[in-house]
Amino acid sequence: IVGGEFTNVENQPWFATIYQKNSGGAPPFFKCGGSLISPCWVASAAHCFIHHPKKENYVVYLGQSKRNSYNPGEMKFEVEQLIFHEDFSEESLGYRNDIALLKIRTSTGQCAQPSRSIQTICLPPRFGDAPVGSDCEITGFGQESHPDYLFPMNLKMSVVKLISHEECKQPHYYGSEINYKVLCAADPEWKTDACHGDSGGPLICNIDGRLTLSGIVSWGEGCAKKNKPGVYTRVSSFLRWIQSHIGEENGLAF
Amino acid sequence: KPSSAVDQQGFQCGQKALRPRF
Question: What is the CA radius of gyration of chain B?
Fold first, then answer.
């Protein structure tokens, strides 16, 4: 996250930290963010996993304010299922259908348990997004500037505004790379944004008084760069897909 | 049909644990 502020995971209790295991015995390294959408399922971005698509490669934590260290109240999970959107694709500039689902379970076969630092996030109503200009929160352990190579140890969050598809499709923005299955969001002053390493994390908007997972951090040109907003997978366009894999009986909250 | 925000197993989607104001 460029700009913004450091925060405690209690402010974003649905935030999941996803690590990729090392083959050589070194500790797992931070890979991407995610969001707990039901007790046993985390939503993230397909592009995080597409080059190493085996579920055994990953470990997921909930309740972490500080990455790669022990956080009181955290929960650690293996990935029981790793599902990519079948129409995921890498385009010239960005991605399409950039969404993945991870079924999580502890070593004793448990799903997530609610606490001050672990909570699910609501899914948006079908095709019901917050209006253009809404303030939405982003969260992650991604880089604080671009180009950078260090990821902060502590969780950050910031606020960006939803911008219209018309604005985002302008030639000097992203032109035809933008379709209606993504959302664009940016800071009016181009001072804060998601960045490399925030992929898969949440774009949380308030819809009818409920905090809702409206977007999944997907791509952007640079970070906090003028006329280059952040591009997010539009979750309200994938509700049927999500439900087809998770179903309603698993505590999804629409 | 929007299910209630209180879904199974004690989760309340989108709710943050507000700090008690001492």
Answer: 12
Give tens-digit pLDDT for A63-79. Answer: 999 999 999 999 999 99
Q: Which of A15, A8, A126, A107 minimizes the C-alpha distance to A61? A: A15
Q: Mark yes or no for CB contact A253/B17 under 8 Å.
A: no
Q: Do A122 and B11 touch (CB under 8 A)?
A: no
B8: contact with A, CB 8 A cutoff: yes
CB burial readout A25-41, b (16+ within 10 A) else e? eeeeebbbbbbbbbbbb
**Is the pLDDT confidence value at A239 over 90?**
yes
Residue A237 pLDDT exceeds 50? yes
Q: Contact A11/B16, CB-based, under 8 Å? A: yes
Closest residue of chain B to A120, computed from CA coordinates:
B13
Interface confidence, given as ipTM, is: 0.90
Residue B5 predicted with pLDDT over 80: no
For residue B1, is pLDDT > 80?
Answer: no
Total CB pairs under 8 A between chain A and B:
68
